TrEMBL record:
Keyword Membrane: no
Database matches in PANTHER family: HTH-TYPE TRANSCRIPTIONAL REGULATOR, HTH-TYPE TRANSCRIPTIONAL REGULATOR GLTR
Name of this chain's protein: LysR family transcriptional regulator
Annotated keywords: DNA-binding, Transcription, Transcription regulation
Amino acid sequence: MELAELEIFRAVAAEQSVTRAAQRLGRVQSNVTTRLRQLEEGLGVDLFRRDNKRMTLTPEGDRMLGYAERLLALAEEARQTVRSEAPSGRLRLGTMEAAAASRLPEPLARFRADWPQVTIDVQTGTTQALADAVAESRLDCAIVAHPAAGDPQDADMRELGEGLEGRYLFTEDLMLVTPPGHPAPRTAADLQVRSLAAFAQGCTYRKCALQWLAEQGGDPAQWTLLDLNSYDAILARVMAGTAAAVLPRSLIDMRRAPAGAGVTTLRPVHSYLIRRAGFDTAALREFSRRL
């Protein structure tokens, strides 16, 4: 198999369309179709189901995608490493929403000013989703929060995924935000709402909130978890009086807590820049220096 075929396969898997994949890659549609067929014939399996012009991965195709991601990432790492010591190519960066809003704008701007030839792809998600993407070579690195308390140098990145290593970046105070007029809670028993607004499962802040509930004698099973996809939506639920939430202090300071909302410190949470063990490019090194 050839790298060009893997690139085409990955693009079709992402776009679920030969036409859109051809546009994305700057190729003619017939070339994409031919190279994809050649890959399938070489492997002896169908990688896609073809229904009403929509291309969806077969089980074999789904397994193949992981290998394609790793092979293409290794090829890009090799190209960047042997060409020169100067950053080049593409840096695929993952980050939590909070870090994207409060921590990344300045480092990204400095890096872009110094190395305009590097293309930076930024993807947001929960800590676990980002860690999985790094482990599977779909991202080069990611800024994530680790659920372990204590000394930040002692955190084990293997809790997020095998083959990952991380560099400590910063510590956030995780804050419990309660609706206007709610008395300041000392324990979970003092909370008058029984809904927690948070990002989806895999979010470290959500996990820490549930740990706090359990440690304070509350039963997380008695709580309704509201899976939301933005901090604005989370704060809206709090201000409506229907939920409590957990947010990092940096985000609260940046946006200013809405008038009347209660803010209580829960615990510190450490954040890291993670990558696959041994992964190293000039672009990653230069970006890491700016964090």
